[in-house]
Amino acid sequence: MTELKSGFPKNFLWGGATAANQVEGAYDLDGKGLSTADMVKFVPKSERGNDFSLDVTKKEIDAILAGEVDARFPKRDGIDFYHHYKEDIALFAEMGFKTFRLSLNWARIFPNGDDTTPNEKGLAFYDSVFDELLKYGIEPLVTLSHYETPLNLTLKYNGWADRRVIGFFTHYAETVFKRYQNKVKYWLTFNEINVISLSPYTGGGVLVENAENPLQLSYQAAHHQFLASALATKLCHEIIPNSQVGCMLARMATYPATNNPDDVLKAQHENQMNLFFTDVHARGTYPTFMNRFFAENNIVIKKETGDDEILKEHTVDFISFSYYMSLSATVKPEGDRTAGNFMGGVKNEYLETSDWGWQIDPKGLRFTLNDLYTRYNLPLFIVENGLGAYDTVEDDGSIHDDYRIDYLRKHIEQMKEAIKDGVDLMGYTSWGPIDLISASTSEMSKRYGFIYVDQDDEGNGTLKRSKKDSFNWYKKVIASNGEDLA
User: Fold this and answer.
1) What is the pLDDT of residues 278-289, one digit of tens each?
2) Sorted alphabetically, which keywords does the UniProt record give (predicted)?
3) What pLDDT score was predicted for residue 356?
């Protein structure tokens, strides 16, 4: 009789995840170049309409560079991890982290993106961060590109729309693989790679405002990222023989809003368009269902000889993904809509929502894990999951975030169920173990962390770090390897 897996594996990688552009700050120190994230201004919630876009135009960039825009750019400052990393990592170690997911800021290492020689001060900073993590026995999980393209590549080449950027990226990847080969063995290539089809500027530094066919530009840029990811995977395996390289998807499973076959087909289409990106990474080929989408949207992917072979020969070792919510789809135009990170859907009457309108669906995580594992039969890694919420600091300095504990508890319970179902799950890094700048809204008040950072949406505060109730709860979860969730 086959023995049923009853809990998390002994070597399960518990931890937390951040992105350079949301925590580091120091945007103009030690030779760092400007990145696309440095051009994203803060827009108060009261001024964000239904047409709020995460994309930035060339005209806006020119005005910002000319000093003609009176605005805050929160991702330039982050939470000053650049100067607080030792303190922050000590807190992660106190919680018992087995791994810490962070990203390298490409423009900190190659300020213009197309430089021949890297910036030594940038490389040295990450050396120090990795040394600090390894001092506590914390494995670094490193993302090469997390919503940051060197701004020069956008202005000079229109980012990933230009095939030449593949070469600049592989030069960057080879540089860091060689530099950190004895410190980092877990790597991710592109964060939430599907976002390039939803926000080309965010996902690939691509400006689409003057494009005849924005979708053509976005999917051509995605093709270049697929190639760059495959080539980086090849390089990593050659330079770091024991390394593991994963792709990363923003996964929001879509349910049909009703059992109307039209809704079922629409939901299937939405899921296919999402999973297209992991299909290429894991299977090494473009799925046939994309042929019709490309034809109906006048998209022709320009390939060169050998592209298909590169994708086929250098697939990923594991699949990582973010999971915050599920979506619902219907062919009916009416109905309440719900918010989401880069995408939304029809309101699901069976689910509660967060302060930002994101639908909370723990069982959807179990569904997602089973769905992905059945589809690819590769190890899975949840590298983002968490609750953005308003936190209140009490008079005595305590922060009681039972709502966050409840959210995480219910998702971890479903992870355990998926493992019982037979899913091979490598690890879990909650999003934002420390409060950081929001990717989608550049807010500070949208807090995810176990650690509170004293800073508001306007950048005011002492940056003092303090523990929330969830800090000790997560510490207990890790110490018990997911058994004690009370």
Assistant:
1) 999 999 999 999
2) Glycosidase, Hydrolase
3) 81
Beta bridge partners, 452, equal 466
Helices (H), 388-468: 402-420
CA distance 323 to 356: 15
> What domains lie within the chain, and their CATH numbers?
13-479 (3.20.20.80)
DSSP structural state of residue 240: S
pLDDT score for 51: 64
Active site (catalytic) residues: 384
Is beta strand 465-467 parallel, antiparallel or unpaired with respect to 451-453? Answer: antiparallel
Angle between helices 261-283 and 289-296 (to 10 degrees): 110
Confirm if 208 and 216 have CB atoms less than 8 A apart: no
pLDDT score, position 50: 64
Angle between helical axes of 164-179 and 120-135 (0-180°, round to 10): 50
Q: Does residue 175 have a pLDDT over 60?
A: yes
Mean pLDDT of 31-37: 98
Give the whole-angstrom CA distance, residue 476 versus residue 486: 9
Tell me the average pLDDT across 266-281.
Answer: 97
Cα–Cα dist 188/145, whole Å: 8
**C-alpha to C-alpha distance for 383 and 191, rounded to whole angstroms:** 10
Label residue 295 exposed, middle or buried (CB < 10 Å: 0-12, 13-18, 19+).
exposed
